[in-house]
Specification:
With 374 residues, the chain is of the alpha+beta class. The chain has one domain: 3-Layer(aba) Sandwich (Aminopeptidase), CATH 3.40.630. The strands form six sheets. Strands 11-6-1-2-3-12 form a six-stranded mixed β-sheet, sandwiched between helices. The longest helix has 31 residues. The N and C termini lie far apart (118 Å).
């Protein structure tokens, strides 16, 4: 008996066509798995590329534009002082001191321009903050070049000048450099007492070792004295940098490079994007320049203090007195046209101090209320 084929079935349209037969669920599952596998693979590949880009040396490196500076006869180096691991509290990534060192190769002139760390500015895509937060934001959020790069980009907005390189020092390296040099000679123009450090600085010439010089540069909790404002603090920082340069001027280029290497071993926060060749060239050209060829500038005459009302970030901050940075741009652009310091009336203009004695007395401070000799 032969088996007869089943006659075709008809649907409601009366057209001859096979009635739909559901596909094998196992085949559908395999296709779904393949699509999910491809989707996950794409995500992993994109993520791997992003991680490689973020952690690649080229991503972390800050562009070095010193060659452009030489071409324009002005090299701007951002000096960044950060707390680092030894900073008390949670401020190790904040920029404690921000200065622009401008160098003019043709005339061997230099200018130190202090940038207030409380400048309230827009920092990249991170919103409006105080300037000192730029370094931490760059370090924490994977900004190309990290904290130094974001701070450089933000300072460029303020001063209207390109930053060609940076040098970053933390507290520990700063102290180490000064100790290696046997201290720096500082003339204290105005005596003051800092009630946070519980330390007093007397008027006159003093030789300060690393810890004492750092306190002198950082002191700001001062009552009944013009030294208690941030702008006076900025000029004291310039004093220490100038005293440090004078000590370095007695070293050969090789000795100076050895000091740089020592500083870089102290902390990961101490670094620069200057090449060794550039550091030697700049040192050879500027290390023994005349003191009168160094100009000291404060932006205090061009800014005003105001209160920030943001509940998440309250307190004092500063902004341009004209509402924009144009006035500051004019000043920084013409920094080498005059040797007159740019300061407010209550600031010490760092005029030449009295002659240095043959033997500068070692600075004495107070450590927890007790005299400390260095």
């Amino acid at each position: 008996m032969s088996i007869q084929p089943e006659p075709p079935r008809y649907d409601r349209t009366d057209k001859l066509r096979p009635v739909y037969t559901p596909k094998d669920p196992k085949k559908r599952s395999k296709w779904t798995e393949r699509i999910m596998f491809l989707f996950i693979a794409v995500i992993l590949i994109v993520g791997a590329i992003a991680l490689y880009t973020q952690y690649a040396p080229s991503f972390k490196k800050v562009p070095n534009r010193v060659v452009d500076g030489y071409k324009g006869d002005r090299i701007n180096i951002l000096l960044i002082g950060v707390g680092g691991p030894t900073h008390p509290g949670e401020g190790k990534d904040l920029a404690d001191a921000i200065m622009v060192l401008s160098l003019k190769p043709s005339s061997r002139q230099a200018a130190l321009i202090s940038i207030p760390r409380d400048f309230y500015v827009r920092i990249g895509r991170y919103g409006v903050h105080r300037l000192n937060a730029a370094h931490g934001l760059g370090e924490e959020n994977g900004y190309p070049g990290g904290g130094p790069a974001l701070l450089m980009d933000t300072v460029e907005q303020i001063v209207g000048e390109p930053m060609h390189a940076y040098i970053r020092l933390d507290f520990a390296a700063f102290e180490k450099i000064i100790d290696e040099l046997g201290g720096v000679d500082i003339y204290v123009y105005r005596p003051f007492y800092d009630f946070m450090f519980k330390d007093e600085f007397h008027e006159g010439w003093q030789r300060m070792m690393g810890k004492r010089a750092l306190r002198y540069a950082r002191s700001r909790y001062i009552r009944a004295s013009a030294e208690g404002n941030n702008f006076a603090r900025e000029l004291r920082q310039q004093q220490v940098i100038t005293a440090l340069r004078e000590k370095l001027s007695a070293l050969s280029a090789q000795q100076a490079m050895r000091l740089v290497q020592i500083a870089q071993t102290v902390s990961k926060y101490t670094d620069t994007n200057l090449t060794t060749g550039q550091m030697i060239d700049l040192y050879s050209l500027f290390h023994n320049m005349k003191t009168e060829n160094v100009r000291h500038a404060s932006l205090a005459p061009f800014i005003e203090i105001f209160m920030v009302n943001d509940p998440a970030d309250p307190g004092e901050a500063v902004k341009p007195r004209t509402g924009d940075f144009n006035e500051i741009h004019v000043v920084t652009r013409s920094i080498f046209t005059s040797n007159k310091p740019i300061v407010t009336r209550d600031e010490i203009p760092l005029s030449p101090p009295p002659p240095k004695p043959a033997v500068v007395p070692m600075s004495q401070g107070l450590e927890n209320g007790q005299p400390t000799k260095y």
